[in-house]
Amino acid sequence: ATPAATMVGTTIGAGHGVLFKGGDVLERAKDVDTVVFDKTGTLTEGEMELTDVIAFDREGNPIPDGGTASRADSGEGDLAASDTDRLGENDVLRLAAIAERGSEHPLARAIVDGAEERGLDVSEPEAFENVPGHGVRATVAPDHLDGGSEVLVGNRKLLRDNGIDPAPAAEEMERLESEGKTAMLVARVPAGTNDGRLAGIVADADTVKPSAADAVAALRDRGVDVMMITGDNERTARAVAERVGIDPENVRAGVLPEDKSDAVEAIQADGRQAMMVGDGVNDAPALAVAYVGTAIGSGTDVAIEAADVTLMRDDPLDVVKAIRISDATLQKIK
Ligand code: ADP
Ligand code: MG
């Protein structure tokens, strides 16, 4: 494009909150044949809410939770009053919240907020470790549990890596995930033992952005392939994909933060020209390797830095707008 056309396109974009980082990206955007959306915070609001708490017995079966609601008001869980192998829902939630207190992850914030809303006393853990892409591990003081324990909150892999079999929770996990929720296992290892056991499940849900489905439809109308990439599990990812109109085979789930850019490179390996759209720190390397990297909305500075296009508003439809502005700019000067 001529410098004048570039300036017009850039100015029109800015008027719509679509910021192009230079004239070459303004030209490239029209040739995008694949759009790869990050899930959390990009297609969804990224504001998780605690939706479910399930307590398991020793065999990993859900147990009825008797009378925890009244005890919740005192800020105490129901553990002290019961057999330690039969935690109540509030015990499971409180343990999970203590373990997640030190995590910045939106999944963690929702668990802590949910516990506090139920009046549970979310104290500091003695030790805390973040296991990126998997969950958290924390040491919880003896006054909360018999002799204290190590608490794990996260996905199946986190438990397996710590020698705890997640299989007994499979049915409940799958049920929650097919509702589009992120279900996390809670396990504890009593201090001084290797006797790790499942304690329960907590689940968070996110809301799909109102315009996400319209954006996917508009891109597909244009002949653009739409894909989704996420660290979340396959079943949750597919449930969200279905809601926004992305084909199940176009979902790349369980992708670790450090593997997102490899996944985009793999998508581009056959000559595709992909626009990666993401919001998080996790997404920066993937934005950088994409043919066009697009940071959306309240995205982090790191994502904006790595991106070629920044969408100031938090609206997936602006992805379509960015491509159309590129079309229009280039057509005018032909
Ligand atoms: P996303 O790409 O959705 O941001 P992440 O790569 O951060 O996901 O995490 C992948 C998965 O690891 C999550 O879906 C969850 O199962 C688990 N996980 C990550 N962080 C936490 C945490 N703080 N607590 C519990 N589970 C977690
Ligand atoms: Mg994200």
Automatic annotation (TrEMBL):
Region (Disordered): 57-85
Superkingdom of origin: Archaea
Compartment(s) of residence: Cell membrane
Family: Belongs to the cation transport ATPase (P-type) (TC 3.A.3) family. Type IB subfamily.
Protein name (record): P-type Cu(+) transporter
Organism: Halorubrum kocurii JCM 14978
Residues of the full protein shown: 504 to 837 of 898
